Amino acid sequence: MLFPWLCLDPSFLVGGCYFCIVEVREVDWRVVLPLRWEVLRPGRPVEAAYFAGDAAPTTLHLAAFAGGEVVGVASFYEEVFPWEGIRGYAYRLRGMATAPAYQCRAGIGTRLLRAAWPLLQARGVEVVWCYARIAAVPFYTISKDTAS
């Protein structure tokens, strides 16, 4: 499934252009691995960026492309919510990464989350959860509120 967006933020300059066309697509785990490694596991062996469940048929991997380049990735794994009080068929978000040139300005992470939700709902998912850095919690809260 393809989710195209056109971002026209004049304060955002990438590759000499004031805009970028971003497409979010479901991909094989091998597509997400290089960016995940670069952003989340720098200086470590590439194997450190491979997570248990990456090759599972139930796992959902999404990549955001700008000009044919992978600029963002997110992976969702079938995994029970670890604390009491919240029930339902759950998936865990792991390995979300955005290329450094696109971080915090292009909305790549938001686009990945917005593309993921309908795909996860179609699988019967009721709860999406993740572990996040304290500094990232506002991003996930805002994304949750806008992911209709």
The gyration radius over C-alpha positions equals 15 Å
* Highest-level CATH class: Alpha Beta
As residue ranges, the low-confidence spans are: 1-18
Mean pLDDT equals: 81
Q: Got a strand count? A: 6
Sheet having the most strands? 6 strands, mixed
| H/E element sequence | EEHEEEHEH
Helix segment tally: 3
Verbal overview:
With 148 residues, this protein is α+β, with helices and mostly antiparallel strands. The chain has one domain: Aminopeptidase. It has 3 helices and 6 strands; from the N terminus they run E-E-H-E-E-E-H-E-H. It has a 6-stranded mixed β-sheet with strand order 1-2-3-4-5-6, sandwiched between helices. Strand 5, helix 2 and strand 6 form a beta-alpha-beta unit. The radius of gyration is 15 Å and the shape is globular. The two termini are 18 Å apart. The N terminus is likely disordered.
